[in-house]
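hi! just following up on the protien thing from before. the input was this:
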Amino acid sequence: MLPRQNLNRFLQVSQRRSFVNATGVPPKLFQLGILNHVAIATPNLEKATAFYRDILNGKCSEQIPLPEHGVTTVFVNLGNTKIELLHPLGDKSPIAGFLAKNKEGGMHHVCIEVDNVYTAMADVKAKGVRVLDKEPKIGAHGKPVVFLHPKDCGGVLVELEQR
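and the predicted 3d structure came back as:
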């Protein structure tokens, strides 16, 4: 335990510290919202849907083709969040590359909501995080989304979605 004199000095020093990065951008231009979904890539969308619907008694959407993203999706509603099942669609699908490395499929990304995807994108870029697209795209929920490079996010592909 710190003596009272040392504790007061520690608190004074802590209050003076600023966590502004080298670019001078304030640390809280945006704040993360709720977890929107966890995306799972699957080589067999029908089989994966049947597992969540018939074995785990989940509420599954119909298949939603998203050619601009190169995927077909099915959402499993969990009440407080969702699971997004992803299957390749078209020749340039990013999911096809993922499945080539992970034959059985697996977790592909997490999606977190933000108030303003453009502000969040500018802020993370200023902090050195690579954004995979120059501009947000419209995602499966009809809202702007942007993906952050997994090498800058602890090995996890992160999707930010506007609320």
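Strands lie at 32-41, 59-60, 64-66, 71-77, 82-88, 106-114, 137-138, 144-148, 157-162.
The two ends are 44 Å apart (CA to CA).
cheers
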